[in-house]
Amino acid sequence: MSTPSTAWPVKLPETPIELPAIVGGNLVETRSREVIGRRHPTFDIAVSRYPRATTADVGEAVAAAAAAAEKRVWSGLSGAQRAKILLDVARRIEDNLDEFRRIECLECGKPVTNAEREIRGAIAHWEYAATLARHTYGDTYDNLGGGQMGLILREPYGVVAMITPWNYPLLIISQKLPFALAVGCCAVIKPSELTSGTTLLLGRILLEAGVPPGVVSVLPGFGHDVGAALCADPRVDMISFTGSTRVGKEIAGKAGAALKKLSLELGGKSAHIVCADADLETAAQKVVIGATRNAGQACVSGSRLLVERSIAREFLERVKAGMRAVRVGDTLDPATEMGPLISTAQFDRVNSYIGAGQRDGATYWSRPSDGPDRKNYVQPGLFTAVDPKMSIAQEEIFGPVLSAIEFETVDQAIAIANGTPYGLSAGVWTRDLDKAFRFGRGLKAGTIEVNTYMAGTPELPLTGHKESGSGHERGRFAVEEFTELKTIHLQLN
Ligand code: NAD
């Protein structure tokens, strides 16, 4: 086991960080409860612990949220009042940035600077959603003839179940919750059992900022019991799920049978397309970031590189040089850019894909390690001689492993890019505007970034096409997701 320096801004805790669950406005401590504990993926010490939520907690939390929705304790406030509270939440996250950063860094095993970037991204979503609280409204029809008039109201779904994954815990809940709160929904949240800490801290901050008790609960628990019970509860009107396509399909089956409103943000196998006319230096830098940020554990990781054949040899050397330069190391060191994978299970999964790619005949190169072996680290790696049908080019590896495929024409690149079940995002590098638009039109993905990558911002929606999901988060459209229309048709004298 490697030991960290004691000089960094985040230190390993002497005792695990303890956070209460939030069940219907009550803080539930770890005393007298079974506990979920999280160990650091590399240092292997206990970093946090919280009470393990139960299906009884689900019942209590949903009942409180349903009662709050029924009594309109939150939706009855004016948009301006809700906006004020959302902005206050943003300010309080910022005031507690060190603690959020510490928890995210320790539980996820992500570099401290990456954790800070994530927290700041989350704050931006709370600030942006606050603007929408005052700008969500329906429509009026005064052109129906005679004394007719139509009012179209936009009403919040009452209780929204929110289920989130482990890779960007605070950011992902912040792509849902502030938008749902902006329009007056209540929420019961089940964060990932691996990284619940920042969502629990957020839940406490919501209460301090004046979100009425019961409007938001946070239940740290497992998917098979707490997550499943939450989705099955008939008082839940909508499920907003971010996670794997496998679990998303399972939830979709049950939500479909119960006719619940559903929003899904699922897996990806994003193509990063580099044309010969691109700014190759910047493209190579972003391709490396796209493949290695968060150790490749991002839904929008650019895990496939599609490179134009005429520049492939040169460009792949640039990518290797970029991967060599990634600062892989101690995640508590502010200079570190890449840390470990979330768990040994994920480490084994990534290595099994590396083995499969080699057995399938692709050539694997990986950045030489420049330090002692650290637990659960995978060095950035590049597969070449990849056939688009290989598993390394089709399936989500969720590690810092890039699969490179060569193309000759725009149409060929589009066909390869679209040739997986996923459709989350894509990157295009070209100086030719016509070509950029051909890609923009032809690629089946919710987000297409041109001459930039992983530049997401709260104003722009995140939408999964194909098996990457349905519905959308972020952007002004996000509030539509959390509301349904009601028509009032009047006959006036
Ligand atoms: P996962 O699907 O295993 O788990 C996600 C959440 O679902 C967790 O909270 C888990 O406890 C819960 N869960 C598991 N089984 C459940 C069930 N039967 N009923 C209800 N809840 C259940 O995903 P993960 O491993 O935590 O996260 C990685 C995945 O998330 C990747 O596929 C990644 O692409 C995806 N992801 C997508 C986006 C996006 O915006 N599209 C963002 C981040 C991550």
Show the helix and strand layout:
Elements: E1 17-18, E2 21-23, E3 26-28, E4 35-39, E5 46-51, H1 55-71, H2 79-95, H3 97-108, H4 112-133, E6 139-141, E7 148-156, E8 159-163, H5 169-174, H6 177-182, E9 186-190, H7 197-209, E10 216-218, H8 223-232, E11 238-242, H9 245-257, E12 261-265, E13 271-274, H10 280-292, E14 304-308, H11 309-325, H12 344-359, E15 363-366, E16 381-384, H13 391-394, E17 401-407, H14 410-417, E18 422-423, E19 425-429, H15 433-442, E20 447-450, E21 462-463, E22 465-466, E23 469-470, E24 472-473, H16 477-481, E25 483-491
Parallel strand pairs: 1-5, 8-9, 8-11, 9-10, 11-12, 13-14, 13-19, 14-17, 16-17, 19-20
Antiparallel strand pairs: 2-3, 4-5, 6-7, 7-25, 12-23, 15-16, 18-22, 21-24
Helix pairs in contact: 1-8, 2-4, 2-7, 3-4, 10-11
